[in-house]
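Support reply, case 0932

Customer input (verbatim):
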Amino acid sequence: MPLPAGVAAGLFIGRQVGVRGAVLGAIKPGRASRPRWASWGQPYDAAPSCGIGFTMSLFKGGLAFAYPMLVDEVKIGALAGSIL
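Our regenerated output:
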């Protein structure tokens, strides 16, 4: 099914792009400083542990689809994307 796969891929990729973008958006303009011991790859490594994407996937999926079967597919995709 394309719906759960799309939700899972969007959650997996979007979480990593969002976390990395937020870190770069804070460090590059000088709003925050990177600790000396931290590498640029660590935000990418920490991205899968962020939980907001799961909640927002369920929220947006519930708003986007009126049929309960499609909402259930969104839930399956969100769960699969969170496990990745």
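We compared this against your earlier run and they match. Two observations from our side: Residues 2-27 form the longest helix (26 residues). The helical segments are 2-27, 42-46, 52-64, 68-83. Please reopen the case if you see a mismatch on your end.
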